[in-house]
Amino acid sequence: MTLVPAGGGEATPFWCLPCGHLGTADAVLNTILFLPLGALLGQLGAGLATVAAAGIGGSTAIELLQTALPGRHPTAGDIVANGLGAVLGLVLWRRLVRGLPSVRTWTALGVAALVAMAAASASSPPPGVLYGQHTPSLGTLDVYDGDVLDARVGGLPVQSGPLEDSDAIRERLGAPAAFSVSFRVGTPPPGWAPLFAIFSADQEEALFVAIRGDDVLVRSRSMAGRLRFAEPSMVVPGGLAGLEPGDTAVVSGRVEQAGFCLETSVLEVCGLGPDPLQGWRLLRRDLGVPVALWTLLSAGVVAFVSASMLLVGRRRTAWMAIAGLSALALALPTLTPLATLRIPALLIGLAAGGLTARVVGGRGPANAGA
What we know:
The chain has 370 residues and is of the alpha+beta class. It is built from ten helices and twelve strands.
């Protein structure tokens, strides 16, 4: 998508690294983008210097082409990330040629990913004076034609404009944040339209509540945003279904032991909030991604992990890991919405892993006994 014209925006300095409020997420994506190039050149027998030159050269050509496209700004950060991705692809290919990772390596990577997700989901509201915004006009988002009657965070009122009790409100801005908004329903917007938001003086988002059609979206500031990753959103489809323009409605969120609960005048959904199996959502803003696709992708993660455990692990260790993953999958329906898809995904992954292990003949550590 880097060679597709984009909407207008402030020019990005060429030498920034990383660039923009999603700079880290973009760097990770640009690294992943060039992994196949490095692996392919590795298959053809290319060395490290050749792969690095190909990655940097190809990326530089793309960045030069961007200078002719409206809304696109070439950056050195993209070139560095693409070159690193090509080299990393070569390294991974060489590692796989020697054999699949050991079960210890696989487990360590999984634990590291879970710890990173937990750290990224920690609350991290922006410092300084906070500003409340009722039905604001934000960039390319739609404008909601309803009216906010009352907005509160942790019981404290949030008016439109600078907040005198910013410190007290900041203390109540968890990730997710407990809040409530009473409003007069407007015309269902075709795209996401902000209903209520809190930002810092530097335009750092602290809390964001939006409406699209009958759907409701909530996003809170976490460490992921501070590290320039995307902030995962919580969406309730049909949260305002049946309401007519002019009706009075309420959207509220609260934190309970089972997770975050988002309640509207129509329905209530609990078990929302950070999900270790959806860490990929830190790489891209999901305002345009259907909720069903989020669920399918997270189910795919379960299938991949369960298949990998059976494929690379020694029998006894692998089956212990599978048992633990099975217990997790059985508990997921009480923790996350629509998570029951992950149970058949677990079984499909086990079947695929077992079949693959038979086909490849127990390559690498998977061939070892218990």
